Amino acid sequence: MPGDIPADDFRRAMHRVADLVADYLESVGDYPVLPRVAPGEVARALPAAAPDAPEPLDRILDDYRALIEPNVTHWNHPGFLAYFAITGSGPGILGEALTAGLNINAMLWRSSPAATELEERVCDWLRRMMDLPEGFSGHVNDTASISSLVALAAARHRLPGLDVRGRGLAGRPAVAPLTLYASDQAHSSIDKAAIVLGLGAESVRRVETDGAFRMSVPALAAAIAEDRAAGRLPMAVVATVGTTSTTSVDPVPAIADLCRDQGLWLHVDAAYAGSAAICPELRALMPGIERADSLVVNPHKWLFTPVDCSVLYVRDPALLKAAFSLVPEYLRTEEPGVTNLMDLGVQLGRRFRALKLWMVIRAFGVEGLRERIREHCAIARWLAGAVAATPGFELAAPAPFSTVCFRAVPRGDDGDPADGDRCDRFNERLLAAVNAAGPFFLSHTVLRGRTTLRVAIGNLRTTREHIEALWRLVGERAAALAAEGV
Ligand code: PLP
């Protein structure tokens, strides 16, 4: 029988993989964050067809080392400061390895009791860590996009008399168009959820934000009233705690009051900033999240857990089950009172993601996790202070957590600040110049129509010294561009 590779070969290769990963993590900072590779270059180095004959594992790992490792964007690099910077921490990587070894499919309690029960327990640990009330029930999805989709499907299911599960929405003129509300800073995953749920992208009302990029509650109330007057059916409000561009926090208490008065589902998207809720002083920046009907937090964003790991909390798991559970005969099991995770969302099969989160929480301890999040925030505060104190730069938004938005404000020939378009060009060139240097990778956003650079601190290897070096580099490159007359 051909079977798997010989056990000894596997053991030897696994030891080598351990060395490869450990070496990588020790020296990742020596790479440029962005690989110096042109589109198509990796593909050209790969054979067009799969090998017919078996290849030695050592040769495959050599190729991994020569072709793959240097040509990824190094998310585990201390200079990775783009999007939301993340960490695949040591304990999390160990958890991933163990998950791969078990290769279980935790669709049912029966198909993996320990995976189901660990997932429930670890989600409850995190609930306590975030100071969310008892009664919130958590489970793990791959991403926040899926968590929000699932939450909004439950919101749709709660609407009385619609039976979308059974009858769908198409071809039902008597059903009023459903509407969703999220700020103009909310993540595009909410629009995607509306598309997938058959509500249509046009069902999402993008509510204006105030000067600090927080949802305007009067504008939200007006949008709901307008939709009701026009015969539409408001369904849910998505409040974002830690928006993608600026990490602003919507005023959840006032939004929760409105949702209560209007009978609307409140979904809180805390994909990034939710992790910070484990620090009491940062939890205080997000009052009202305990009033959500559903809340998503991504440990793979800022809780040092390897991609992917998103936790969705809901107040009423029975609703999720009512929206999603479908049990074909071959999946019927006998155990009473157990959770079958397949009942809580779209997918049947599921990876054992809770194991890595369990290892992360235990290996750092809650206090250790708090310390690391606080350190990131302290570094961000230092950078925000440096930006504010440097002529020719401005902060583009408040920085409540570990992400700083800023822009250069070059001077025109007359010595006054340059006009907006020139300022945008300057910042685009500045971003390109900083990223081309190698040690750092920043991303950008557009705020109130103006190009803005972002520094997102979320990697455990990033220190204050790295950010000081970044700030020196930004200053040097900005001076060079100004000298060129850009
Ligand atoms: N919500 C917010 C606030 C985000 O910033 C992001 C991604 O950055 C998402 C949702 C989507 O996350 P995911 O990639 O897990 O779907």
Task: Draw up the topology in text.
Layout: H1 7-27, H2 41-45, H3 57-68, H4 90-102, H5 113-129, E1 137-141, H6 144-158, H7 164-167, E2 178-183, H8 189-196, E3 204-207, H9 217-229, E4 233-240, H10 252-262, E5 265-269, H11 280-283, E6 294-297, H12 299-302, E7 310-314, H13 317-324, H14 354-389, E8 393-395, E9 403-408, H15 420-437, E10 443-447, E11 450-456, H16 464-484
Parallel strand pairs: 2-3, 2-4, 4-5, 5-6
Antiparallel strand pairs: 1-7, 6-7, 8-9, 9-11, 10-11
Helix pairs in contact: 1-3, 4-14, 5-14, 6-8, 6-13, 14-16, 15-16
Order of helices and strands: HHHHHEHHEHEHEHEHEHEHHEEHEEH
Superfamily (CATH H level) name of the largest domain: Type I PLP-dependent aspartate aminotransferase-like (Major domain)
Number of domains: 2
Spell out which ligands are present.
Answer: pyridoxal-5'-phosphate
The CATH architecture term of the largest domain is 3-Layer(aba) Sandwich
Strand percentage lies at: 5-15%
User: What is the global morphology?
Assistant: globular
